[in-house]
Amino acid sequence: MEIAFDPNQADFSKLGSAPEGNLFISKVNHKTYLKIDEKGAEGAAVTSVGVGVTSLPPHLKFDRPFVFLLRNRDSNTLIFAGKIEDPTSR
Prior knowledge:
- The chain has 90 residues and is mainly β.
- The protein has one domain (2-84).
- 0% of the residues lie in helices and 47% in strands.
- The protein is built from no helices and four strands.
- Strands 1-2 form a two-stranded antiparallel ribbon. It has a two-stranded antiparallel ribbon with strand order 3-4.
């Protein structure tokens, strides 16, 4: 996974490209919530990934629904899958 964070070795060319430079993962945030009481347990988690570019900030346009997958290149193991149905909403 460390290659994805390296601006010189990361390869996200199948995801997209930026004329300013190479894309790489610049930040990962993970937040969790867990509540346990006499009624039971409730939990949730969310992860966000920031993409950086080796030069200027990238200009990426996501204007239609899309699916994204994160996999380990060596083992071809799927690590994460997600879908964005309306990228124009916030």
